[in-house]
Amino acid sequence: MTSDKVDFARINPADPKAHELARDRAKEIWEAAKQLAQQLFGRPYPPAVKFLIRFSTPVILSKAKGRKVTAKEACVRLFKSPAEETGVLCYTFTKRQGYMFFDSDLLAITSIEIPPDNMVDDKKCAAVRQLVRSIHPNAWGDFKQELQNQEAVQRYSRRGLSRVDIRKILPPHIVRGVEEAFQNKSPFHYRHEGEKRNWTVEVKPGDDGILRGWFCSYFKGAAHGSEYILLNPHIASFMERD
Cα(127)–Cα(73) distance, rounded to whole angstroms? Predict the structure, then answer.
């Protein structure tokens, strides 16, 4: 294993134990994805990372709206369904729909790696530092301290760095509640169910006395979406897909 790639031994799909070997290969891939995610984000959470997966032979993969693609490599996110410990290894090209790998797909996988667009970028590191300056003085004391370290800056630079202004999403009286929570270091929670998306905003002081906040956006009827760190009463960033 290199720092950003894991290779796998080739398996003969005609092997009588192909199904068992495919299950074992799925476990290997998941563990490798956790290792690579740990390198990128500081925690072993594969769905947060888009991986480049290479196959020994062309495979047919499913995409949104019933489309199919035949390829020897693909950039996808990995997750397990329905549960991480016992679930089937799945992939997704988009935020909405995921599909399971067939045994033949798993046996054809030769490597998994971090694609170049997930590597460290100086401009993204500068964007991280700029976002840190927008953190409310009452909040995220530990996070601000952590981001004094260059390695942490590089790790967070691989997250979604776009700014989400919750004033454009949530009702004014909810925004005022968030503002008061930051000002008074008090807990606040609100969930809004929209036509296509559900939103949750939460602010709360931890047992360590540090105030933290989050904003989450989920597709209606889906268990996955996007989670953001709420830096101040109005702006959320450092998006991570769930």
Answer: 31
